Amino acid sequence: MANTASARKRIRSNDRKRLRNRITRTAARSAVRSAREALAGNNVEASRQATLAAVTALDKAAEKGVIHKNNASRRKSRLMKKLATLETSKK
């Protein structure tokens, strides 16, 4: 248990930030999962929309510092690569 008032305050602050970060992280993970599922299907338009939504969610998470910017960039790159492959195979 924390002994000083500042340590107790820091614990409360960390709890608030943890909850806020968890919301953003969960939204990003859900968007990425939806994009992967859409990419596994054969609908190009739905895949494009889901991928762009996932890119937006990852950008927001990286901007807020919830995930590292390189982590977001790597995930976006992988999703866009799969989308490009799907689009070229459908043409």
Distinctive features:
91 residues; mainly alpha; Methane Monooxygenase Hydroxylase, Chain G, domain 1
What does this protein structure show overall?
This protein has one domain (5-90): Up-down Bundle (Methane Monooxygenase Hydroxylase, Chain G, domain 1), CATH 1.20.58. The chain is elongated, with a radius of gyration of 18 Å. The protein is mainly alpha-helical. α1 (5-40) packs antiparallel against α2 (44-63) and α2 runs antiparallel to α3 (69-90). The protein is 86% helix and 0% strand. It has helices spanning 5-40, 44-63, 69-90. It is built from three helices and no strands. The mean pLDDT is 95.
Give a quick rundown of the structure.
Helices cover 86% and strands 0% of the residues. It is an all-alpha fold and 91 residues long.
